[in-house]
Amino acid sequence: MANSTLQPPSSSSSSSFTPPGGSISVSAQVGIAILTLAFILGFPGNLFVVWSVLCRVRKRSVTCILVLNLALADAFVLLSAPLFLRYLAGGRGWEFGSAACKLVHYLSSVNMYVSIYLICLMSMDRWLAVTKPFLSQRMRTKRSLLALLMGVWMLAFIFSLPMPFYRSNLKKPNGTLKFCIPYHWKSVGHEAFQYLFETIMGCLVPFTLINTCYSSVICRLQSARFHRRSQGSCLILMIICTFAVFWLPYHIVNLIQVTGLLQGKASVIDAAKTARPNVTAFAYFSSAANPILYVFAGSSHIRQAGLSFMGKLFEGTYSESRTTSTRSGRMSSSSNTVLQSLSVKLGKPFKGKNKNMSSVVGQNEPELKTLASVEPLD
């Protein structure tokens, strides 16, 4: 299907509406309200998070460093809000040139990928701390964390390359104003590729990884009868849920539009294009949501610490991550010690291998049940 220059533009993290000449449409008014609120709350809020981490946190956990990068990415993308506000309210189209059109949408796309893959790193860090504590302690070095962060940023810049490729500053038919809109050279294949690629790499792949990590963590904690949920874990879960709430509608619209393109159904495509401006604006607000979460999560520290309350919150993630790793390590060590003791009493050597443990349990199950009733297992 031809990609008309009149269609609403889409991006990975920015809201771009085409106001009709002389008046501001309802969609544009909604976009202006969302962008204004996002900028007023999000930009100073993310700068406050950066200041808190850099100036108020003495011991920074992995979660804290990842939150710092997340806040920097969100603050940076919110700098584009004044350009889009001018675009929506000015009634003069896109006045900043083709290069700026491509750049701001490219950086918005980078923000989406950086955010979700930083959340993936948070989930993987929590998974390692709970399921493989000794490996987690060895990997938690400045060098390995720096390498992972560089990898995430490079991946985001690479994944975002289609965005400027499919974005142009074009005139309306029989018009003089230019608008920063998507353009796919009237190719169904290019249009389907862009939206499907965004959804696969920006939603399906990372959320599969996140769900796998947290499912493993939940199973591990349940099997260990260790049900205490730390503040750090709650904070990460809130960040994940917030990202999902703001971005899932955007990716659902992507899938609807791809479905319409592949089936050649104009009504489905039109419905997706009608919904796209609003869900894109909604996704843009995700850059302002995290600082609000941190305020609620750290509210118990406000009365005691004042403006340093967020520093106290992030320092708590440091102590809790060490406690989780230590406690998980103690559980592993305790299990090995108990099995070694049982194997000595049974006359069977225990070397800490799963197959040896299985042979001891399998061959001497009655004796193990009897000894387990008198030996403490925790």
Q: How many structural domains does the protein architecture include?
A: 1
Overall geometry comes to globular
CATH topology: Rhopdopsin 7-helix transmembrane proteins
Strand content: under 5%
Number of helices: 15
From the alpha carbons, calculate the radius of gyration and give it in angstroms.
Answer: 26 Å
Please state the second-level CATH architecture: Up-down Bundle
- Cα separation of the termini: 65 Å
Secondary-structure topology with pairs:
Elements: H1 26-56, H2 62-78, H3 81-90, H4 97-131, H5 133-139, H6 142-159, H7 162-165, E1 167-171, E2 178-182, H8 188-223, H9 231-263, H10 266-284, H11 286-297, H12 302-305, H13 309-346, H14 354-363, H15 365-372
Antiparallel strand pairs: 1-2
Helix pairs in contact: 1-2, 1-3, 1-10, 1-11, 1-13, 2-4, 2-11, 4-5, 4-6, 4-8, 4-9, 4-13, 5-13, 8-9, 9-10, 9-11
